Amino acid sequence: MFDEFDLGIDSLAVRAGQTRSAEGEHAEALYLTSSFVFENAAEAAARFAGGREGNIYSRFTNPTVRMFEQRLAALEGAESCVATASGMAAILTTFMGLLKAGDHVICSRGVFGNTTSLLNNFMAKFGVETSYVALTDLTAWQAAIRPNTRLLYLETPSNPLMETADIRQLADLAHAHGAWLVVDNCFCTPVLQRPLALGADVVVHSATKYIDGQGRCLGGAVLGATALIDKDIFTFVRNAGPSMSPFNAWVFLKGLETLRLRMQAHCASAHALAQWLERHPAVARVHYPGLPSHPQHALAARQQSAFGGVVSFEVRGARAEAWGVIDAVRMLSITGNLGDTKTTITHPATTTHGKLSAEQRAAAGISEALIRVSVGLEDLVDIQADLARGLDRLA
Ligand SMILES: *Cc1c(COP(=O)(O)O)cnc(C)c1O
Hints:
By secondary structure, the protein is an alpha/beta fold. The protein is built from 14 helices and 12 strands. It has a 7-stranded mixed sheet, with helices on both faces. The chain has a 5-stranded mixed sheet with strand order 8-9-12-11-10, covered by helices on one side.
């Protein structure tokens, strides 16, 4: 066997975490079993008394899920990982595992809408209070700190404007006040950005997006130091049951093997598309961290190894013009999902961000003219031609 510590990132993506059964299977085995049997009563007693070692019941231990956890941990540079049923299950698990009544959370205003709902409608019921700040405004994060602040939460880059926060600065701020920094690394994946190396305490993922990468399965993960993950996070999943299915773990294991190649292709096409959009006369503004016109271009260049697969842009006009461009597409998928081989196109103001008030949307910078594209793996010329159908008519 090889020593995983000697392997490069591509080798880890293909090899890390794999265990073979006595059958000697080459590909990772899919263990579709809800429980595991013991040699005798004493072995059963020993397993139940133990921690994460040894299989008991697939709500909390399953070999296929374990292989996925160890492979993703190797890529994120994390000591430990717990897989969950979805990205939202990972976020709920993090909050339930780490917080208690009376605690205060500071959250970036631009996070995934369900995360905000979870904090406002559910964590609030259990006495956890949340303040919201602008992702890129360090002074606002500082000013929001209270004696009972336990957790700072953000996504970088943000959805849909691709704003970027300095993870190291915010980790230092959190630690100076005895709080944890939690980063949702869904948009970058460990291929583009490793928040734990920049000082974050916990990384959460929606594996549903780029880790699957082909739009098939829901899943998530929570990663960090063993002391945190194997205690509060694992124990919550074990008791509450927001667990990843072995089948989905098997799909995600295969997704991780090609993640780097796919991310490079997504990023290359997104970058070229952003440059092309910036030159188009019907486009008023493009939001992509790879463009020098992006306000955090320098930070993104420092913090990420590439700029991501999502591009947002404003057409000249308002809702009618944006909808016109969306309705003119023939190949692109009109859907809210992202991180797929298939390019997707969304109107954030009336879909993903439709529940916000007009004032909240204005504060978040999401106009009626904004369109978000998650760039897939089709030929770039075909993606451009599909967008040009509506854009050329506007110009
Ligand atoms: C999709 C998404 C989630 C939620 O993940 P699910 O797997 O859909 O539950 C969380 N954060 C971000 C940034 C996402 O894009």
